[in-house]
Amino acid sequence: MKRLVGPVAIAILLLANLLVARQAIAHKWGNWHWNRYGSSVTIRVYNTARYWTEANRAVRDWDNNTILYLPDPGTHTDISLFDGNYGATGWGGLAEIINYTSGSHITHGHARLNYYYSYSSTGKQGVFCQEVGHLFGLDHSNDGCMGMGYYNNIYYTVPHNWNDIYNMYRYSHH
Ligand SMILES: [Zn+2]
Ligand SMILES: [Zn+2]
Ligand SMILES: [Zn+2]
What we know:
alpha/beta, Collagenase (Catalytic Domain), two-stranded parallel ribbon, 3 helices, binds zinc ion
């Protein structure tokens, strides 16, 4: 496995309770995306989290509302979800691209919740919602869980997020 260094190591940090005002720009995280497209796009998501229920709610939210199909194969695969008490890291959630191929094509990613920071159950769901969203290629935006901690405290996806996914994956993987 390869760990990203350099600019990509920005790894989109969700800073616990630190509201970082950022200008709303494109809602894509750089040019990161999966090399897949169509009316139903499968990305396998392995839920290993202790807060399994919250993580699962987040994944089902994306699965139910977007063209993404997100089965859990029960094995380390496209995306894996983790959580832990990682201490005072400054981030409550972390998305990491572990492997990729040329063309900014994500082939493996990890999403983490740091429960050192005390989130409510819905808050934990919101962190997973946002970190998984990053691994689909989305940046922060001012709506739904992609804005949690930055623009709002919404813990679930909203039509804006669904449209961002649709626009990325329906007709082209770019
Ligand atoms: Zn984030
Ligand atoms: Zn591509
Ligand atoms: Zn892995």
